[in-house]
Amino acid sequence: MKTKTFSLTTALVCAAALPALAQSLPGEGKDVRMSRSDSLGTQYIQDEILKTALEDLGYDVSMTNVGTSAFLQAAAQGDLDISGDINMPQRALQYDTVADDVTLLSGGTIGGGGINGYLIDKATADEYGIKDLSALADPEIAKLFDNDGDGKADLMNCDPGWSCGDVVDYQLEEFGLGDTVESVRAKYEPLLAETFAQFRQGKPVLYYTWSPSFVTETLVPGKDVVWLPIPYDAAPEGVSVPNGHLVEGVVGCAGDAPSCRMATGSWNWEIAANRDFIAENPAIAKLAEEMEWPLATWSTWETQMKGDNSDRAIRKIAAGWIEENRATYDAWLAAAKAAAAG
C-alpha cells in the first residue's frame, strides 16, 4: 500500500512538471520576424547562424529580404522584429531617426571591425615610395596605373548604384585628383577580375575595396598590395564617420604605418531589434551580445561565397561553421538560456 501511494504521488509530481518542461526553451511558442538585407553578402551566413540559434532556442523564425531603410521603419512600427544587417556607421543617420523604437544589440559582429579603402600593388608602392593617396596628384605617378592610354590612373571603383563609389568620387575631387585619376564604375566583380589578371601579369593595380572580402583574400594586404591612406579626414554629406578615419593596427598600410587613415574609418555589422520585442526576449538580447567572428572567418566566408552564393550554399557554410565551432555555439545558447531564466 505504501509503495502504491508513493507511485501515485510521483506520477502527480511528474504530471505537474510537464508544462514547465515544455517551456524549458525561452523561445517556445514565440514567433520571430527576422529580415536580412536585400543586398547579398557575407552577412547572409551570419544571418543563417543567427536564425539557426534562434530556432535552437525554441523560436519559430520567418525570414524576409528587405532594404535596410525599410527594415528600420518596419521595426520601429513593430512590423518586423530583428535584423543582423545594419551596417554602421554608414547607416547611422537612418538609424538615428528610429532610435527611440529600435535598439542596436551586438556592438558589432566583426571582431575589431571592418575597413574600406584604396589599394595598390606593393611592388609599385615600394619602388616609387607611394605612401598615401595624394601621391596620385603627380601625373607621372598616376600614369603608372593608366590602362586605357588617356594619361590618367584608372581606379577600379564600386558599382554605379553603391554608396561606396559615391564616397570615392567625392574624395577624388576633395583631394584634387580629378585631373589625374579616373573613377571606373561598373559591375564590381568583373572589374576586380580584370585587376587580378593585371596583377598576375606584373602590372601596377589601383582599386577600392573593403575587408573582410574575397578581394583581400585574393590579393593580400602587406604581401601583394598595400592600403593607401587618405591625406586627411573627408566624407560627403550624409556619410557618418563618428570615430574618424584613422584606424589603428591596419595590416598592410603603406610604409608599414602603425595607423592608417581609411576611406570611411572602421565599420561593422550590427544586430538591431524593436525595443519592445527585445525587452520581452532577454535570451535574444544576450545571444546577439555574444555573437562575433574574427576578421579571418569573415574573409574565409567571402571566399567560399565567391564560388557559390546560393541559399543552399549559404546554409551549408553556416552549418559547417556551427559543427566546427560547436563549443562556442553551445556557449552562446547557454548564455541566452541563462539570461532568459534571470
The level-1 CATH class of the largest domain = Alpha Beta
Shape: elongated
Question: What's the main sheet like?
Answer: 8 strands, mixed
Q: What percentage of residues falls in helices of 4 or more residues?
A: 40-55%
Do you know the CATH topology of the largest domain? Answer: D-Maltodextrin-Binding Protein, domain 2
The tally of helices reads: 14
CATH 4th-level superfamily of the largest domain: Glycine betaine-binding periplasmic protein, domain 2
Report, as a whole number of angstroms, the end-to-end distance.
Answer: 42 Å
Number of domains: 2
Radius of gyration: 25 Å
H and E order: HEHEHEHEEHHEHEHEHEEEEHHHHH
Low-confidence regions: 1-22
What proportion strand? Answer: 15-25%
CATH architecture of the largest domain: 3-Layer(aba) Sandwich
> How many strand elements?
12
Structural class of the helices, strands and pairings? alpha/beta
Average pLDDT across residues?
A: 91
How would you sum up this structure, described in words?
The chain has 342 residues and is an alpha/beta fold. It has two domains: 149 residues, Periplasmic binding protein-like II (D-Maltodextrin-Binding Protein, domain 2, 3-Layer(aba) Sandwich), CATH 3.40.190.10; 151 residues, D-Maltodextrin-Binding Protein, domain 2 (3-Layer(aba) Sandwich), CATH 3.40.190.100. Helices cover 43% and strands 18% of the residues. It is built from 14 helices and twelve strands. Helix 7 links the parallel strand 6 and strand 7.
